[in-house]
Amino acid sequence: MEFTEAYDILKEAIMVTIKVGAPMLIAALALGLLVSIFQAMTQIQEATLSFIPKLLGILTVLILFLPRINGYLSGFAMRLMDRI
Fold first, then answer.
1. How far apart are CA 68 and CA 21, in angstroms?
2. Considering Cα of 25, then 26, then 27, then 29, what sign does the dihedral take?
3. Is 42 helix (H, G, I), strand (E, B) or coil?
4. Cα(79)–Cα(72) distance, rounded to whole angstroms?
5. 1: CB partners within 8 A, 6+ apart
6. pLDDT tens digits in sequence order for the chain, 84 residues long
7. Taking a C-beta distance cutoff of 8 angstroms, is the pair 40, 6 a contact?
8. pTM of the prediction?
9. 45: helix, coil or strand?
10. For the chain, which residues make up each domain, given as ranges?
């Protein structure tokens, strides 16, 4: 395997990782921000309050984006097997 081919595989793997993880990270970020704003407005300073909304939000996004994530991962795996 030459350097350029290894570089292309690594570049594609990083892009697939970003595409797979981004929806869940964005959901966690948005929900964490909303919970923080809610805590600031109500002056509730409970650190564990944000875990349940984030967990439910990430699970919801995961379920909604699961077909797309499966497509990204299976496509990458097929392209990788074709190169081998």
1. 11
2. positive
3. helix
4. 11
5. none
6. 788 898 999 999 999 999 999 999 999 999 999 998 998 898 888 878 888 989 999 999 999 999 999 999 999 999 999 988
7. no
8. 0.81
9. coil
10. 3-83
